[in-house]
Specification:
This protein has 74 residues and is mostly helical. 80% of the residues lie in helices and 0% in strands. The protein contains three helices and no strands. The chain has helices at 2-34, 38-49, 59-72. α1 (2-34) runs parallel beside α3 (59-72). The radius of gyration is 15 Å and the shape is globular. The protein starts with a helix and ends with a helix.
């Protein structure tokens, strides 16, 4: 039971770090896009977005998906 609790905590910590990294990458992708570097912005954001396997109803992942779609539209 204790081992399972530590496993959940570890996964939560990792997931939390991914969420923070996603937020930072969204901001950086927006900056790059504003500088005309849409391809770089999309590639970087897509790499992080593709890490996720669940939680696509969260605000951060919805924002990332919207930005990816905008960046892919050229």
């Amino acid at each position: 039971m204790l081992r399972a609790a530590f496993g959940v905590r570890s996964r939560s910590r990792t997931q939390g770090a991914k969420s923070w990294e996603l937020r930072a990458t969204i901001s950086l992708a927006q900056l790059l896009a504003s500088q005309g570097r849409r391809g770089d912005a999309r590639a970087m954001l897509a790499e992080i977005y593709n890490w996720f396997t669940e939680g696509f109803d969260t605000a951060d992942l919805k924002d990332a998906k919207t930005l990816l779609e905008e960046l892919g539209a050229n």
